[in-house]
Fold:
Amino acid sequence: MTLRPSGEMYFESIYVLSKTKSPVCSIDVAEYMSYSKPSVSRGIGILRKEKYITVDNDGYISLTDSGLLLARKIYEKHTVLSKILTMLGVDEKTAIEDACKIEHVISDKSFQALKKHIERIKDR
Structure:
């Protein structure tokens, strides 16, 4: 499955929410993302169909192993890109907003190169 940016945002949102709030339900995702309930319901349905999440009888959402792996990858891109931008002098709010856009289009190859470069700089 090729994810669109909105799909990646669902992963990231569920992951972030699950780190701070447990259990997570669709309304939490809708509020966090500022999306309508019907939009979130559709997105959750797609992720569930693809077996990236499970939804229990009470409506609580959990990432499956494959969903968690993907969510961590997306979240790592966001945090590393935000950090790089702030290191370059971009204010935090703008860095976070821009990282959110960049994380959806940057290739894994380019991201790994950026990450490796930042690690070399930190080791100096």
